[in-house]
Amino acid sequence: MDCAGQVRNGFLKVMPNLDVITKRISQAIDLKSRILEEHELLTELSNLVDSCLSALNAGGKIAFCGNGGSFADAQHLSAEFTSRFIFDRPALASIALGTNSSAMSAIGNDYGFENIFAREVEANLDKNDVLIAITTSGNSNNIIQALKAAKKSGIRAFVFTGKSGGALPKNIPAIKIPSNDTARIQENHILFGHILCELVEEGMFGNKTI
Fold first, then answer.
1. β-strand partners of 94
2. Which uninterrupted H or E stretch holds 123?
């Protein structure tokens, strides 16, 4: 029996590969250290906070969209607004696009998968709202079309993405995590999303953090 596992009561117990675990944690720490030096990136997040506060104070809402893991992040962050993040307070208006499966399948069938979010932008968002799109690669066509639809309608739009920004429109403010590793990018998208939720909650209701 090698060091990868050992027999216990007739069963093979697989031991964790500590080299991989420590390497991935070190990579995550290193990336966060680099982010702390990215003044432009941090300023873009601050600008997004201000835009969200402006939208909510004007009676607007915060909309999110993404695919796969980023779709889960979109729902996660929207829920932090409509429920609560750090402390009890009134609900904040927010939606995650694509959560109506009937609408998504109808739009995909009738207009193509690339338009599933763009049609919802046209139908459900207005100039008082903010759209936050999430794409690690920057190449998701349905995200690109959603951003274009927002721009066309005068809706403020931001995007969370990775180092390259992919094929995203150049005129959309982008929060670019300085990495090409999908897992590390996604980890920092949710970090930035949580910071956004905290600062918006504080801006709307006062500092009640601990």
1. 62
2. helix 116-124
> With 0-12 CB in 10 A as exposed, 13-18 as middle and 19+ as buried, what is 152?
exposed
Tokens of 145: 């079309």
At residue 73, φ and ψ (nearest 5 deg) are -65, -40
Q: Is the pLDDT of residue 135 over 60?
A: yes
Task: Name residue 160's beta-bridge partners.
Answer: 134, 175
Can you spell out the DSSP letters for 59-121? T--EEEEESTHHHHHHHHHHHHHHS-SSS------EEETT--HHHHHHHHHHH-GGGHHHHHH
Work out the number of other CB atoms within 10 angstroms of the CB of residue 156.
Answer: 21
How many helices (H) and strands (E) the chain has is answered by 7, 7
**Residue 144 near residue 177 (C-beta atoms within 8 A):** no
Given a cut of 80, whether residue 16 has pLDDT beyond it is: no
CA dist 122 and 61 (Å) reads: 14
Question: How many C-beta atoms surround the C-beta of residue 65 within 10 A?
Answer: 31
Scan for tokens 């046209």, then name that residue.
Answer: 122
CB–CB of 155/95 below 8 Å?
no
Q: What's the pLDDT score for residue 207?
A: 80
Residues 69-95: pLDDT tens digits? Answer: 999 999 999 999 999 999 999 999 999
